[in-house]
Every structure is written in C-alpha cells, then in structure tokens.
Design goal:
binds magnesium ion; 2 domains; binds 2-succinylbenzoate; TIM Barrel; alpha/beta; about 375 residues; Enolase-like, domain 1; seven-stranded parallel beta sheet
Length: about 375
C-alpha cells in the first residue's frame, strides 16, 4: 500500500489512581496515537513511551519528534509499503523502538483490515482469552498496599506483581503473602538493585515468588546470570531484552529464566513474535508486559499474549484499572480473563468523540505526490 498521510495525536488521559514506581509517578497518561491513512482505509497505532526517559531512554516528546522528522517521512516515501516492510523502511534510524512500534502497529491494523484478518490470528494466537494480571505500584504504607491488592483480587485478577526497591521489598512481600496466601505473586525492581545487594535479594526466596523481574540495570547481563546462581527465585528480564537477538543471548548466558515481552520495547509486534519464538525454542516461559496502554495498545498486547508460549499471566488489566473512559470500548474482566479481539486488524475501533475530548494536539503529515 501507499500511505497518503499520517496523523500524530497527543492525548491527556487521567489515570484512575497515580501509578508510582522508582521511575517516577504517573497521574496522567500523556498518550501518543498514530493514525495512518491509505486509499483503502486507516490504521491506528499507539506509542507507549512514557513522559520521562526513566524506564528506557525513550520518552514521549522525543518519540514524537523522531516520528515527525525521521520516521514518518521515511514511511511516507515508501511506494509500496507492507507491515513486514516497516522495520526495514525505518532501519536506518537507530533506536526508538516505541516510536517504530507505533507505526508498524498502525500499518498492521490497516493491512489486516483489508484482508479481514485479526492481529491475533496473524501473529499465531492459540487462545481466545488471556489471564489478566495487575501491576501494583509502590505504596505509601503496607496497610495501603494490602488494601489495593485486596481490591484487585476481589475484582478477579489472577496474579499480582509488586514494584519493589531497596527499603520496600521483604516487608511488603511478606505482608501480602501473609494476608493473601498462595496467590500468584512476583516482584519487579526496574533495575533498582546493585550486584552487591545479592544477600538482600536472597531473602525474597522465602516467599515462593514466581519471579524477580529486572533486579539490575538493563546492561548488567553478567550480574543477572551470577545472581541466578545464588537465588531460587527465577530471574525475569524486561528492560534488558531489546530484540530477539538480545533475548537469545540473555537466555544462553543464564541471565533470564523468564522473559517479559513488550512489543514497544523491541520495536514492534513482529519482532515481539520473534522474541516469543526464540524463547519457546529454548523452553523459556514468557508473559506480556504493559505500559499503561489505552485500549489500542491493550488490544495488540492481548493478541500477542494469545500465542502459545505466553504461559504466564501478563500485565494485562481491564481498562478500568487505568482509565475511567478508554479510547476504545473498554476491556473488561470475565472471570479474571480478557477476551482476545477477533475482528479485523486490532479488532477494536477508537471512539471518535472520546479521542477528540482528550486530545491536546494533532499534527497531520501528508505524502509528497
Ligand atoms: O516495568 O513493567 C514495567 C509501566 C511503565 C513502564 C514500565 C513498566 C510499567 C508497568 C505497568 O509495570 C504495567 C501495566 O501496564 O499494567
Ligand atoms: Mg518491568
């Protein structure tokens, strides 16, 4: 297909409750949506970069700039674009996987709509529902944390992930275990620890956690491999995994026993499928991470999580865990699961009035004729 134009749209979406991690606090999601226009229709994508460059180096203003000035012009210059060809068309630009992912997602949506195929089917889904998990941010106190976790379990979530950091680890984990018994529980450190913290991390072995996610910085692969030898709790990598190649290396070096797959972190849903395939061949379980997505990104994530290797519940929560009003019809829990959209493309349609009401800016870039 030949694109005729691309729209870059910023939205300001208040979260139902602030999400606090060591990377900062998010109270309002500064969302960046991409709409591509073709002679046959349109396709939507979401760039999940956060407001600040604290999770990875990407952040929403930077992503917007690289899209507007470097990525969108390259895509508009393609005479015959396919979703498979997006990564190659953008390969000259280094990095910026979340910005690239948004464009590839929009092209996949448009392309699959013309053939009536769902993204889930296209990626190789084997399930029509996926288990919903919930990520719980740092809390001000243990009683507040127990309150929050209790409400999510009552809502039906099948597993809970707690954010931890030095000074907020053993105590909250122990309290959650004591109160809620053998609920599926894991912790995510977002790189908060240093290799010298091994003794403290070993204390978490007492709580039968499903995994310890990203204890050290993204590039500390050798330290993660060393830690894995010292701990019973399996190590999962998030920030360290930037491609199928890096996943293969992390697995081979013993740094990851479990992989968190986020398509935006690896440059798109097609690379995410390759990460899944690498892990499946190595017998490494994977799960789908999240970044406080709107219904668009959530639809794509739920489709990805329907692949066979996604044997652990992901950070895939209902719309109302994040937003009072979502930009698509809301994702809701059915007995602790989310339905995989089966319609063409992403399988969800944005609600025009809702998108408009939250929009703070729109930029329309057209192709040269
Ligand atoms: O480390 O998984 C993470 C959100 C933004 C950036 C990084 C992370 C997260 C989350 C949110 O944990 C999980 C969700 O979307 O429900
Ligand atoms: Mg994480």
């Amino acid at each position: 297909m030949k694109l005729t134009g691309i729209e870059l749209r910023r939205l300001r979406l208040p979260l139902v409750a602030p999400f606090r991690t060591r990377l900062g606090q998010t109270s309002v999601r500064d969302a960046l949506l991409v709409r591509i226009i073709t002679p046959d229709g349109e396709g939507w994508g979401e760039c999940t970069a956060m407001a600040q460059p604290t999770y990875t180096s990407e952040y929403v203003d930077g992503a917007h700039h690289v899209l507007r000035h470097h990525l969108v012009p390259r895509l508009l210059a393609q005479p015959d674009l396919t979703a498979e060809g997006v990564a190659l068309a953008l390969a000259a630009v280094q990095g910026h996987p979340m910005a690239k992912c948004a464009l590839e997602m929009a092209v996949l949506d448009a392309e699959l709509r013309t053939t009536g195929t769902s993204l889930a089917h296209h990626l190789g889904a084997v399930r029509d529902k996926v288990e919903a998990g919930v990520a719980v941010g740092l809390a001000a106190s243990v009683p507040e944390l127990l309150d929050t976790v209790g409400r999510y379990l009552d809502a039906g979530y099948r597993r809970v992930k707690l954010k931890v950091q030095p000074g907020w680890d053993v105590e909250p984990v122990e309290a959650v275990r004591q109160r809620f018994g053998d609920v599926a529980l894991h912790v995510d450190a977002n790189g908060a620890y240093r290799p010298g913290d091994t003794a403290q991390l070993r204390r978490l072995d007492a709580f039968a956690l499903t995994m310890l996610e990203q204890p050290f910085a993204a590039d500390e692969l050798a330290a993660h491999a060393d830690l894995a030898k010292e701990l019973q709790t399996p190590i999962c990598l998030d920030e360290s995994i930037t491609s199928a190649a890096s996943a293969a290396f992390a697995i081979a070096s013993g740094a990851a026993a479990i992989v968190n797959i986020k398509a935006p972190r690896v440059g798109g849903y097609l690379e995410a499928r390759r990460v899944h395939d690498v892990c499946a061949r190595a017998g490494i379980p994977v799960w789908c991470g999240g970044m406080l997505e709107t219904g668009l990104g959530r639809a794509a994530n739920v489709a990805l999580a329907a692949l066979p290797g996604f044997t652990l519940a992901g950070d895939l929560s209902a719309s109302d865990r994040y937003y009072t009003t979502d930009v698509t019809p809301p994702f809701v829990l059915h007995d602790g699961r989310l339905r995989v959209p089966g319609g063409p493309g992403l399988g969800v349609d944005v609600i025009g009035e809702v998108v408009e009401s939250f929009t703070t800016s729109v930029e329309h870039v057209v192709a040269d004729r």
